[in-house]
Amino acid sequence: MSKEELMLVRITGADRPGLTADIMDILSQYGVHIQDIGQAVIHATLSMGILIRVDEDFSGKVMKELLFKTSELGVNIKFAPVTMEEYEAWVSRQGKNRYILTILGRSLDARQIGAVTHLIVDQGLNIDAVRRLSGRQSIERPAEKTRACIQFSLRGTPKDREQMQAQLLRLSGEMAVDCSFQRDNMYRRMRRLICFDMDSTLIQAEVIDELARRHGVYDQVAAITEQAMRGEIDFCESFRRRCQLLKGLDVSVMQDIAENLPFTEGVDRLMYVLKSYGYKIAILSGGFTFFGQYIQKKYGIDYVYANELEVDETGHLTGNYVGEVVDGKRKAELLRLIAQVERVDMEQTIAVGDGANDLPMLAAAGLGIAFHAKPRVVANARQSINTIGLDGVLYFLGFKDSYLDAKAQ
Protein backbone atom coordinates (compact mmCIF):
# COMPACT_ATOMS: atom_id res chain seq x y z
CA MET A 1 0.00 0.00 0.00
CA SER A 2 1.51 3.32 -1.10
CA LYS A 3 2.16 6.10 1.33
CA GLU A 4 0.83 9.65 1.23
CA GLU A 5 2.79 12.86 1.28
CA LEU A 6 1.84 16.22 2.74
CA MET A 7 2.90 19.25 0.76
CA LEU A 8 2.33 22.99 0.99
CA VAL A 9 1.83 24.57 -2.43
CA ARG A 10 2.42 28.34 -2.65
CA ILE A 11 1.28 30.26 -5.73
CA THR A 12 1.99 33.97 -6.23
CA GLY A 13 1.63 36.38 -9.12
CA ALA A 14 -0.85 38.43 -11.11
CA ASP A 15 -4.42 37.43 -10.31
CA ARG A 16 -6.50 36.19 -13.21
CA PRO A 17 -9.93 34.58 -13.64
CA GLY A 18 -9.94 30.80 -13.66
CA LEU A 19 -6.57 30.28 -12.01
CA THR A 20 -7.94 28.42 -8.99
CA ALA A 21 -10.20 26.30 -11.19
CA ASP A 22 -7.22 25.28 -13.38
CA ILE A 23 -5.20 24.27 -10.32
CA MET A 24 -8.09 22.25 -8.90
CA ASP A 25 -8.60 20.45 -12.23
CA ILE A 26 -5.05 19.08 -11.99
CA LEU A 27 -5.32 18.10 -8.33
CA SER A 28 -8.65 16.35 -8.84
CA GLN A 29 -7.19 14.13 -11.58
CA TYR A 30 -4.92 12.50 -9.00
CA GLY A 31 -7.38 12.23 -6.11
CA VAL A 32 -5.54 14.87 -4.09
CA HIS A 33 -7.01 15.71 -0.66
CA ILE A 34 -7.12 19.41 0.29
CA GLN A 35 -6.19 19.74 3.96
CA ASP A 36 -6.27 23.54 3.98
CA ILE A 37 -6.53 26.40 1.52
CA GLY A 38 -6.28 30.18 1.74
CA GLN A 39 -6.03 33.07 -0.68
CA ALA A 40 -5.51 36.83 -0.58
CA VAL A 41 -5.34 39.42 -3.35
CA ILE A 42 -3.57 42.74 -2.80
CA HIS A 43 -3.44 45.24 -5.68
CA ALA A 44 -4.31 42.51 -8.24
CA THR A 45 -1.48 40.31 -6.91
CA LEU A 46 -2.50 36.81 -5.80
CA SER A 47 -1.05 34.89 -2.87
CA MET A 48 -2.50 31.39 -2.48
CA GLY A 49 -1.57 28.53 -0.19
CA ILE A 50 -2.87 24.96 -0.54
CA LEU A 51 -1.93 22.18 1.87
CA ILE A 52 -2.40 18.90 -0.02
CA ARG A 53 -2.26 15.22 0.83
CA VAL A 54 -1.28 13.14 -2.21
CA ASP A 55 -0.33 9.53 -2.95
CA GLU A 56 3.47 9.43 -3.18
CA ASP A 57 3.20 7.52 -6.49
CA PHE A 58 1.56 10.62 -8.00
CA SER A 59 3.30 13.47 -6.17
CA GLY A 60 5.96 13.91 -8.87
CA LYS A 61 3.34 14.02 -11.62
CA VAL A 62 1.22 16.51 -9.65
CA MET A 63 4.19 18.85 -9.17
CA LYS A 64 5.19 18.55 -12.82
CA GLU A 65 1.72 19.41 -14.13
CA LEU A 66 1.33 22.27 -11.68
CA LEU A 67 4.70 23.67 -12.79
CA PHE A 68 3.65 23.57 -16.44
CA LYS A 69 0.27 25.12 -15.74
CA THR A 70 1.58 27.96 -13.55
CA SER A 71 4.29 28.72 -16.12
CA GLU A 72 1.57 28.91 -18.76
CA LEU A 73 -0.46 31.24 -16.52
CA GLY A 74 2.54 33.45 -15.73
CA VAL A 75 2.55 32.91 -11.96
CA ASN A 76 5.11 31.51 -9.55
CA ILE A 77 4.81 28.24 -7.63
CA LYS A 78 6.79 26.70 -4.78
CA PHE A 79 6.48 23.35 -3.00
CA ALA A 80 7.39 22.66 0.61
CA PRO A 81 7.12 19.20 2.21
CA VAL A 82 5.27 18.98 5.54
CA THR A 83 5.93 16.13 7.98
CA MET A 84 3.07 14.35 9.67
CA GLU A 85 4.42 15.54 13.03
CA GLU A 86 4.33 19.17 11.86
CA TYR A 87 0.81 18.73 10.54
CA GLU A 88 -0.53 17.12 13.72
CA ALA A 89 1.11 19.82 15.84
CA TRP A 90 -0.64 22.44 13.68
CA VAL A 91 -3.97 20.61 14.05
CA SER A 92 -3.55 20.49 17.83
CA ARG A 93 -3.42 24.28 17.92
CA GLN A 94 -6.89 24.55 16.36
CA GLY A 95 -8.58 24.36 19.75
CA LYS A 96 -6.92 27.53 21.03
CA ASN A 97 -8.91 30.66 21.75
CA ARG A 98 -9.60 32.95 18.82
CA TYR A 99 -9.87 36.73 18.96
CA ILE A 100 -10.55 39.59 16.57
CA LEU A 101 -8.49 42.76 16.92
CA THR A 102 -9.85 45.63 14.83
CA ILE A 103 -7.94 48.87 14.38
CA LEU A 104 -9.40 51.92 12.66
CA GLY A 105 -8.80 55.61 12.13
CA ARG A 106 -8.88 58.33 9.50
CA SER A 107 -5.75 56.69 8.10
CA LEU A 108 -3.43 53.88 9.20
CA ASP A 109 0.32 53.85 8.67
CA ALA A 110 3.21 51.49 9.42
CA ARG A 111 3.88 53.13 12.79
CA GLN A 112 0.35 52.47 14.07
CA ILE A 113 0.10 48.96 12.63
CA GLY A 114 3.59 48.15 13.90
CA ALA A 115 2.73 49.22 17.45
CA VAL A 116 -0.36 46.99 17.45
CA THR A 117 1.46 43.96 16.01
CA HIS A 118 4.26 44.30 18.59
CA LEU A 119 1.59 44.28 21.29
CA ILE A 120 0.11 41.11 19.77
CA VAL A 121 3.51 39.40 19.88
CA ASP A 122 4.18 40.56 23.45
CA GLN A 123 0.90 38.99 24.55
CA GLY A 124 1.84 35.62 23.04
CA LEU A 125 -0.83 35.70 20.32
CA ASN A 126 -0.43 34.52 16.73
CA ILE A 127 -1.85 36.33 13.69
CA ASP A 128 -3.80 33.86 11.52
CA ALA A 129 -5.18 36.35 9.01
CA VAL A 130 -5.27 40.06 8.19
CA ARG A 131 -8.19 41.69 6.34
CA ARG A 132 -8.76 45.24 5.20
CA LEU A 133 -12.38 46.16 5.96
CA SER A 134 -12.29 49.74 4.66
CA GLY A 135 -12.52 50.60 0.98
CA ARG A 136 -9.57 51.66 -1.16
CA GLN A 137 -8.78 55.37 -1.05
CA SER A 138 -7.68 57.45 -4.00
CA ILE A 139 -4.29 59.14 -3.52
CA GLU A 140 -4.89 61.82 -6.15
CA ARG A 141 -8.48 62.55 -5.08
CA PRO A 142 -8.66 61.78 -1.35
CA ALA A 143 -12.08 61.83 0.28
CA GLU A 144 -12.85 64.61 2.74
CA LYS A 145 -13.56 62.24 5.64
CA THR A 146 -11.56 59.09 5.09
CA ARG A 147 -11.85 55.82 6.99
CA ALA A 148 -9.24 53.08 7.33
CA CYS A 149 -9.76 49.75 9.07
CA ILE A 150 -7.76 46.54 9.38
CA GLN A 151 -8.93 43.38 11.13
CA PHE A 152 -6.55 40.82 12.62
CA SER A 153 -7.69 37.27 13.31
CA LEU A 154 -5.67 36.04 16.30
CA ARG A 155 -5.15 32.68 17.95
CA GLY A 156 -4.01 31.92 21.49
CA THR A 157 -4.60 33.34 24.95
CA PRO A 158 -3.34 36.78 25.99
CA LYS A 159 -0.77 36.63 28.78
CA ASP A 160 -2.66 39.40 30.59
CA ARG A 161 -5.91 40.51 29.00
CA GLU A 162 -6.43 43.48 31.32
CA GLN A 163 -2.92 44.68 30.59
CA MET A 164 -3.58 44.24 26.89
CA GLN A 165 -6.74 46.36 27.13
CA ALA A 166 -4.78 49.05 28.95
CA GLN A 167 -2.05 48.97 26.30
CA LEU A 168 -4.60 49.26 23.49
CA LEU A 169 -6.18 52.21 25.28
CA ARG A 170 -2.79 53.87 25.57
CA LEU A 171 -2.06 53.31 21.87
CA SER A 172 -5.43 54.80 20.97
CA GLY A 173 -4.61 57.98 22.83
CA GLU A 174 -1.07 58.30 21.55
CA MET A 175 -1.52 57.33 17.90
CA ALA A 176 -5.03 58.50 16.87
CA VAL A 177 -6.24 54.95 16.29
CA ASP A 178 -9.20 53.04 17.73
CA CYS A 179 -8.89 49.39 18.76
CA SER A 180 -11.47 46.70 19.44
CA PHE A 181 -10.44 43.38 20.98
CA GLN A 182 -13.19 40.76 20.96
CA ARG A 183 -13.50 37.02 21.51
CA ASP A 184 -14.20 35.46 18.12
CA ASN A 185 -17.23 33.30 18.79
CA MET A 186 -20.70 32.78 17.37
CA TYR A 187 -22.12 35.68 19.41
CA ARG A 188 -19.74 38.15 17.76
CA ARG A 189 -21.00 37.05 14.35
CA MET A 190 -24.66 37.08 15.38
CA ARG A 191 -25.30 40.46 17.03
CA ARG A 192 -29.00 41.31 16.80
CA LEU A 193 -29.86 44.27 19.07
CA ILE A 194 -28.12 47.64 19.24
CA CYS A 195 -28.97 50.40 21.72
CA PHE A 196 -27.81 54.00 21.35
CA ASP A 197 -27.57 56.94 23.63
CA MET A 198 -28.98 59.99 21.83
CA ASP A 199 -27.33 63.24 22.89
CA SER A 200 -23.69 63.54 21.76
CA THR A 201 -23.96 60.07 20.20
CA LEU A 202 -26.63 59.98 17.50
CA ILE A 203 -26.68 63.77 17.45
CA GLN A 204 -23.88 66.25 18.08
CA ALA A 205 -25.76 68.21 20.71
CA GLU A 206 -27.25 67.99 24.18
CA VAL A 207 -30.89 68.88 23.53
CA ILE A 208 -31.41 70.11 27.07
CA ASP A 209 -28.64 72.63 26.40
CA GLU A 210 -30.40 73.71 23.18
CA LEU A 211 -33.65 74.20 25.07
CA ALA A 212 -31.79 76.18 27.71
CA ARG A 213 -30.20 78.37 25.04
CA ARG A 214 -33.67 79.28 23.73
CA HIS A 215 -34.78 80.06 27.29
CA GLY A 216 -31.75 82.15 28.18
CA VAL A 217 -30.40 79.79 30.86
CA TYR A 218 -27.76 78.00 28.81
CA ASP A 219 -24.76 78.71 31.04
CA GLN A 220 -26.45 77.35 34.16
CA VAL A 221 -27.76 74.22 32.44
CA ALA A 222 -24.56 73.48 30.51
CA ALA A 223 -22.51 73.61 33.71
CA ILE A 224 -24.78 71.03 35.35
CA THR A 225 -24.77 68.87 32.20
CA GLU A 226 -20.98 68.72 32.12
CA GLN A 227 -20.81 67.76 35.79
CA ALA A 228 -23.29 64.94 35.20
CA MET A 229 -21.53 63.62 32.07
CA ARG A 230 -18.24 63.53 33.94
CA GLY A 231 -19.93 61.60 36.74
CA GLU A 232 -19.28 64.28 39.32
CA ILE A 233 -22.92 64.54 40.43
CA ASP A 234 -25.86 62.15 40.45
CA PHE A 235 -27.67 62.09 37.11
CA CYS A 236 -31.19 62.15 38.56
CA GLU A 237 -30.41 65.16 40.72
CA SER A 238 -28.74 66.99 37.85
CA PHE A 239 -31.69 66.19 35.60
CA ARG A 240 -34.19 67.55 38.13
CA ARG A 241 -32.21 70.78 38.55
CA ARG A 242 -31.88 71.33 34.80
CA CYS A 243 -35.58 70.72 34.18
CA GLN A 244 -36.49 73.33 36.76
CA LEU A 245 -34.43 75.90 34.88
CA LEU A 246 -36.62 75.29 31.78
CA LYS A 247 -39.83 76.31 33.52
CA GLY A 248 -41.95 78.60 31.34
CA LEU A 249 -40.38 77.66 27.98
CA ASP A 250 -42.87 77.51 25.08
CA VAL A 251 -42.94 73.91 23.77
CA SER A 252 -43.22 75.12 20.16
CA VAL A 253 -39.45 75.61 20.12
CA MET A 254 -38.96 71.85 20.45
CA GLN A 255 -40.12 71.17 16.89
CA ASP A 256 -37.76 73.78 15.49
CA ILE A 257 -34.84 72.30 17.41
CA ALA A 258 -35.76 68.77 16.26
CA GLU A 259 -35.84 69.82 12.60
CA ASN A 260 -32.34 71.27 12.91
CA LEU A 261 -30.62 68.57 14.93
CA PRO A 262 -26.95 68.15 13.96
CA PHE A 263 -26.70 64.42 13.27
CA THR A 264 -23.39 62.70 13.90
CA GLU A 265 -21.15 61.80 10.98
CA GLY A 266 -21.99 58.32 9.68
CA VAL A 267 -25.48 58.02 11.21
CA ASP A 268 -27.29 57.75 7.85
CA ARG A 269 -25.01 54.97 6.63
CA LEU A 270 -25.07 53.15 9.95
CA MET A 271 -28.85 53.14 10.22
CA TYR A 272 -29.31 52.05 6.62
CA VAL A 273 -27.00 49.06 7.09
CA LEU A 274 -28.42 48.02 10.46
CA LYS A 275 -31.99 48.08 9.13
CA SER A 276 -30.96 46.29 5.94
CA TYR A 277 -29.40 43.44 7.91
CA GLY A 278 -32.31 43.04 10.33
CA TYR A 279 -30.92 44.54 13.53
CA LYS A 280 -33.34 45.73 16.19
CA ILE A 281 -32.47 49.30 17.14
CA ALA A 282 -33.27 51.23 20.33
CA ILE A 283 -32.65 54.72 21.67
CA LEU A 284 -32.06 54.70 25.44
CA SER A 285 -31.60 58.33 26.38
CA GLY A 286 -31.37 60.56 29.38
CA GLY A 287 -32.67 63.24 27.04
CA PHE A 288 -36.27 63.78 25.97
CA THR A 289 -38.87 61.58 24.32
CA PHE A 290 -39.92 64.29 21.84
CA PHE A 291 -36.52 64.27 20.14
CA GLY A 292 -36.09 60.51 20.40
CA GLN A 293 -39.39 59.98 18.61
CA TYR A 294 -38.39 62.47 15.91
CA ILE A 295 -35.24 60.42 15.23
CA GLN A 296 -37.27 57.21 15.45
CA LYS A 297 -39.54 58.34 12.60
CA LYS A 298 -36.57 59.45 10.50
CA TYR A 299 -34.74 56.11 10.68
CA GLY A 300 -37.42 53.55 11.52
CA ILE A 301 -35.99 52.83 14.96
CA ASP A 302 -37.78 50.10 16.90
CA TYR A 303 -37.70 51.39 20.50
CA VAL A 304 -37.36 54.76 22.20
CA TYR A 305 -37.05 55.24 25.95
CA ALA A 306 -36.29 58.74 27.22
CA ASN A 307 -37.71 61.35 29.60
CA GLU A 308 -41.04 63.12 29.24
CA LEU A 309 -41.26 66.84 30.03
CA GLU A 310 -44.42 68.05 31.76
CA VAL A 311 -46.39 70.71 29.85
CA ASP A 312 -49.11 72.94 31.36
CA GLU A 313 -52.44 73.87 29.76
CA THR A 314 -50.90 76.96 28.15
CA GLY A 315 -48.26 74.95 26.23
CA HIS A 316 -45.32 75.83 28.45
CA LEU A 317 -42.91 73.61 30.38
CA THR A 318 -43.68 73.35 34.09
CA GLY A 319 -40.09 72.60 35.09
CA ASN A 320 -41.09 69.03 36.04
CA TYR A 321 -40.96 65.69 34.26
CA VAL A 322 -43.37 62.75 34.04
CA GLY A 323 -42.51 59.21 35.12
CA GLU A 324 -39.23 57.53 35.99
CA VAL A 325 -35.97 59.17 34.98
CA VAL A 326 -33.96 57.22 32.41
CA ASP A 327 -30.59 57.26 34.16
CA GLY A 328 -27.65 54.90 33.84
CA LYS A 329 -29.20 52.11 35.89
CA ARG A 330 -32.46 52.36 33.96
CA LYS A 331 -30.65 52.19 30.62
CA ALA A 332 -29.07 48.89 31.58
CA GLU A 333 -32.45 47.57 32.76
CA LEU A 334 -34.09 48.60 29.49
CA LEU A 335 -31.34 46.94 27.47
CA ARG A 336 -31.99 43.66 29.28
CA LEU A 337 -35.77 44.07 28.95
CA ILE A 338 -35.66 44.69 25.20
CA ALA A 339 -33.28 41.75 24.74
CA GLN A 340 -35.75 39.56 26.62
CA VAL A 341 -38.70 40.78 24.53
CA GLU A 342 -36.76 40.21 21.29
CA ARG A 343 -35.45 36.84 22.55
CA VAL A 344 -31.87 37.96 22.05
CA ASP A 345 -29.04 36.66 24.23
CA MET A 346 -27.25 39.49 26.05
CA GLU A 347 -24.03 38.45 24.32
CA GLN A 348 -25.73 39.40 21.04
CA THR A 349 -26.42 42.97 22.17
CA ILE A 350 -24.50 46.17 21.45
CA ALA A 351 -24.61 49.46 23.35
CA VAL A 352 -23.12 52.78 22.21
CA GLY A 353 -22.84 55.92 24.32
CA ASP A 354 -20.60 58.76 25.41
CA GLY A 355 -21.43 59.70 29.01
CA ALA A 356 -20.92 58.36 32.51
CA ASN A 357 -24.62 57.46 32.64
CA ASP A 358 -24.03 55.10 29.69
CA LEU A 359 -21.45 52.98 31.52
CA PRO A 360 -23.97 50.52 33.06
CA MET A 361 -25.46 49.63 29.67
CA LEU A 362 -22.01 49.49 28.03
CA ALA A 363 -20.97 46.99 30.71
CA ALA A 364 -24.18 44.96 30.36
CA ALA A 365 -24.04 44.62 26.57
CA GLY A 366 -22.14 41.91 24.76
CA LEU A 367 -20.31 44.69 22.93
CA GLY A 368 -20.16 48.08 24.66
CA ILE A 369 -18.67 50.95 22.66
CA ALA A 370 -17.75 54.37 24.05
CA PHE A 371 -18.21 56.89 21.24
CA HIS A 372 -16.17 60.13 21.33
CA ALA A 373 -16.61 59.79 25.06
CA LYS A 374 -15.30 61.49 28.15
CA PRO A 375 -11.94 60.13 29.45
CA ARG A 376 -13.56 58.33 32.37
CA VAL A 377 -15.98 56.54 30.04
CA VAL A 378 -13.23 55.51 27.59
CA ALA A 379 -11.14 54.18 30.48
CA ASN A 380 -14.01 51.98 31.68
CA ALA A 381 -15.28 50.73 28.31
CA ARG A 382 -13.61 47.80 26.57
CA GLN A 383 -14.15 49.28 23.10
CA SER A 384 -14.13 52.89 21.97
CA ILE A 385 -14.33 55.01 18.82
CA ASN A 386 -12.77 58.45 18.92
CA THR A 387 -11.27 58.95 15.46
CA ILE A 388 -14.11 58.56 12.94
CA GLY A 389 -17.90 58.75 12.65
CA LEU A 390 -20.58 56.55 14.16
CA ASP A 391 -20.54 54.17 11.19
CA GLY A 392 -17.21 52.97 12.58
CA VAL A 393 -19.40 50.67 14.69
CA LEU A 394 -19.92 48.59 11.54
CA TYR A 395 -16.23 47.68 11.44
CA PHE A 396 -16.40 46.37 15.01
CA LEU A 397 -19.25 44.15 13.79
CA GLY A 398 -17.04 42.82 10.97
CA PHE A 399 -18.71 44.59 8.05
CA LYS A 400 -16.52 45.24 5.01
CA ASP A 401 -16.99 48.40 2.93
CA SER A 402 -17.23 46.40 -0.29
CA TYR A 403 -20.21 44.46 1.11
CA LEU A 404 -21.91 47.64 2.24
CA ASP A 405 -21.37 49.43 -1.07
CA ALA A 406 -22.86 46.46 -2.92
CA LYS A 407 -25.85 46.45 -0.56
CA ALA A 408 -26.45 50.15 -1.15
CA GLN A 409 -26.51 49.61 -4.92
Written overview of the protein:
- There is one protein chain.
- The chain is of the alpha/beta class.
- It folds into 3 domains: 4-92, ACT domain (Alpha-Beta Plaits); 96-184, Alpha-Beta Plaits (2-Layer Sandwich), CATH 3.30.70; 193-408, 3-Layer(aba) Sandwich (Rossmann fold), CATH 3.40.50.1000.
- Helices cover 40% and strands 27% of the residues.
- The protein contains 16 helices and 15 strands.
- The strands form 3 sheets. Strands 12-11-10-9-13-14-15 form a 7-stranded mixed β-sheet. Strands 2-3-1-4 form a 4-stranded antiparallel β-sheet.
- Helix 4 (110-122) packs antiparallel against helix 5 and helix 7 packs antiparallel against helix 8.
- The longest helix has 18 residues, at 56-73.
- The protein is elongated, with a radius of gyration of 27 Å.
- The protein starts with a strand and ends with a helix.
Question: How would you describe this structure in keywords?
Answer:
409 residues, Rossmann fold, four-stranded antiparallel beta sheet, 16 helices, 40% helix, elongated
For the record, the CATH architecture of the largest domain stands as 3-Layer(aba) Sandwich
Per DSSP, what share of the residues sits in E-state strands of 2 or more residues?
A: 25-35%
- End-to-end separation in angstroms reads 56 Å
CATH superfamily of the largest domain: HAD superfamily/HAD-like
Low-confidence stretches: none
Characterize the biggest β-sheet: 7 strands, mixed
Strand order of the largest sheet: 12-11-10-9-13-14-15
Query: Got a strand count?
Result: 15
Helical proportion?
40-55%
Mean pLDDT: 91
Fold-level CATH name of the largest domain = Rossmann fold
CATH class descriptor name of the largest domain: Alpha Beta
